[in-house]
Design goal:
Structural class: alpha/beta
Largest sheet: 4 strands, parallel
CATH class: Alpha Beta
Shape: globular
Strand order of the largest sheet: 2-1-3-4
Order of helices and strands: EHEHHEHEH
Number of strands: 4
CATH superfamily: Response regulator
Distance between the termini: 28 Å
CATH architecture: 3-Layer(aba) Sandwich
Radius of gyration: 15 Å
Oligomer: single chain
Length: 171
């Protein structure tokens, strides 16, 4: 099913996306970095505002995991963000919040109350090879786990961009 954003995307009103995992040091900063890299490559960087967060406060202020950064850099992607905790105000700040797994999706939905136009979904909804599954946490795995996660997030980001670009209004 094709994703439908709740509004058109313009340079004056960029589409705001937040990627969310547990600690905001592996999966979500990797998704953020890949998405930023891809939209810049396409000349669409000014149409999007991208951030990431964690549902837990375990690593607030820290850089992305060293292995996540190394794997991303080997693919030409920089991970520059610092970990922060997801909170209720993010529903007012973002158009789309993408959870990396079912547990974090449930944590996000627990915070969501009242009326908001913010859409919340699973990142792998956009994965052409594994719709609506969890993005596995590579934290305790070896290097291969980080490579697998990078591939999943790269595929998912490409498809997300493909589904969002028809909603960009060139003014």
């Amino acid at each position: 099913m094709e994703f439908q954003p709740t509004r058109s995307i313009t340079k004056e009103n960029p589409y705001r996306i937040c990627f969310v995992c547990l600690g905001n040091i592996c999966r979500s900063p990797t998704a953020e970095g890949i998405f930023q890299h891809k939209v810049k490559e396409l000349g669409l960087g000014s149409y999007f505002y991208v951030d990431s967060a964690g549902t837990g406060a375990y690593h607030v202020g820290e850089k992305a995991n060293a292995t996540s950064r190394s794997v991303a850099e080997s693919h030409g992607v920089s991970l520059l963000s610092r970990a922060r905790q997801f909170d209720y105000d993010d529903f007012n700040e973002f158009d789309l919040i993408l959870a990396m797994d079912a547990s974090n999706y449930a944590n996000i939905m627990t915070l969501k109350s009242g009326t908001t136009t913010t859409q919340v979904d699973m990142m792998r909804r956009f994965d052409t090879e594994g719709t609506n599954e969890d993005v596995p946490d590579p934290y305790y795995g070896g290097l291969n786990g980080f490579e697998v996660v990078f591939s999943i997030l790269e595929r998912s980001s490409k498809e997300l961009i493909n589904q969002l670009t028809p909603h960009i209004l060139n003014e």
